[in-house]
Design brief:
The complex is a heterodimer of chains A (about 280) and B (about 290).
Chain A (H helix, E strand, L loop, with lengths): L1 H36 L3 H4 L12 H11 L2 H32 L5 H11 L5 H14 L6 H5 L7 H11 L3 H9 L4 H12 L1 H17 L2 H6 L8 H8 L7 H21 L1 H9 L5
Helix pairs in contact in A: 1-14, 3-14, 4-8, 4-11, 4-13, 9-10, 11-15, 13-14
Chain B lengths: L4 H29 L2 E2 L6 E2 L1 H9 L2 H32 L7 H9 L6 H11 L6 H8 L11 H29 L3 H9 L4 H29 L3 H6 L12 H11 L3 H25 L5
Antiparallel strand pairs in B: 1-2
Classes of the chains: A mainly alpha (about 280), B mainly alpha (about 290).
Chain lengths: ~280, ~290
Amino acid sequence: MTSRSQRRLGRSILLHLFLTPLALVWLFPLWMMVVFSTMPDNGIFSPGIELLPHDGFLDNFNNLQRDTNFVGAIGISVSVAVTYTFLSVLLTSMAGWALARYEFLGKGLVVAIIFGTITLPYAVVLIPQFIMVARDFQLANTWIALIVPPLFNSLGVLFMRQAFSMMPAELFDAARVEGVKEWRIFLFVALPLARPMLAALAIILFLASWNNYLWPLLINSQPGAMTAPVALGTLIGLTKVSWGGIMAGAVMLTVPMLIVFVLLQRHFIAGIAAGAVK
Amino acid sequence: MRYRNATAYRFLTPYLLIFAIFWIWPIISSFLISFQATRTLPWRFAPAFNWGRLIGDPAFFNALKNTLLILVIQVPVMISLAVVMAVLLNSPLLKARGLYRFAFFAPVVVGEVAYSAVFRLMFSLDFGIINKLLNSVGLEKIDWFSNVTPAMALIMIAVTWRWAGYNAIIILAGLQSIPEDVYEAATLDRVSKVKQFFHITLPLLKPVIVFCAVLSIIGTMQLFTEPFLITERGGPGGGTETLGLLLYRQGFRSLNFGYASAIAYTMAGLAIAITLVQLWLMREPK
């Protein structure tokens, strides 16, 4: 048995020898983001190699706030992400419930259209969405423009349909026998049972909204209406801009999500593994 | 289940309304717009106007070439890397699993703008940490932004960093659904770990890998933020311009909606074609 456990040990050492450098390379950009965010600009653009954080984060943050109203943009991003997540979870779980639990006219068609169009690139709808929201509805630079159009996302519907169809029918039939209304069964029986799936979906949707770039860039381009990623994006490539400030902004966008990720890893991974969002 | 039309549609309607207005109608609308001349008001129906231009537009073929090049190199590299990550993370021999998972999965939560900014800074010519590190081990520094090949490589490195862990999560879930006893039998028959990987794990993972490949292809097809922010609007000189970026410039800088819609439908056509090929490749042998 000794040779076998020795082989095991050898394999284990090999595994860690390979995986550790790879993990360090993968962590490197995040680490450097933090390091840059604490360095003054003349430190970032100096010949030496600096791999440890300094103490200039607040100065960089002040520079960032001078270049763009980042705190205001963060406020918009948080409010939009929270509202979007709530509405999207509500709409897609209602639709998922109907598709999982009722027979109705046109059900096959609805499912076929959702599945049939799910792999179409988002780029296809970008231009009509923009024309509609900006020109026809005159809603550019509003919260509605940021929140409502992205609610079309159908992956949540499929995710919740799957969740509800796995629940045993007796659960709901018992309530029906006692005369409980369908919407109460949905709200007070089905939704509480689907809590883990709802959590996974909500986290993924929140993240998608928080990081969304292209649509907010197009539709809310006025300085006071920008989300945080868009506001930060406008600084990248400018000549007279504080790169330490940009990095401070990147840290403010990223670190809260990393903390959420660590705390709620299980739900995160469940959501991604189920393909809840592209 | 009994038919309950009224109840079902009460639950469905709010979502279906949004879905129809912001997804189904735009899909149709964009197809129609691609057949209209939109440079002057009022728009007029002119079937060859945009599609004819597309066929003879060197900027389109440049963007198409770049997009396909990124697709052909980056997606296979990233998926292979994701398989390696998933298999190794799944190894019972691994210690401090949580740390390794964090390292590979963390990029999943990082926004495109934030990581584009970091990559731009890390790879800058004179003061970028990457060139400083290359220098310190005696290698020539690389001008990542003024030459096409390094610029393309940089885009691919950035996208791979951002998305490999995402795919590894999906593949890891696939791995964990393979029953243990399949391997136990193989181990009893003294089949080596490497052979087990190629003859058991990979074939069983095929559907998951194809799923990841399709998702990645559709994503890479629309690549926009990285060439927009990292290589500064597809630089150097259009060397990293992608279809997504061309669509943005045509649609939202030149406000040429008809031409941009034709570009969008070209992307859709490519995505559908590639998806169908993938599905055909993974069909069950009869």
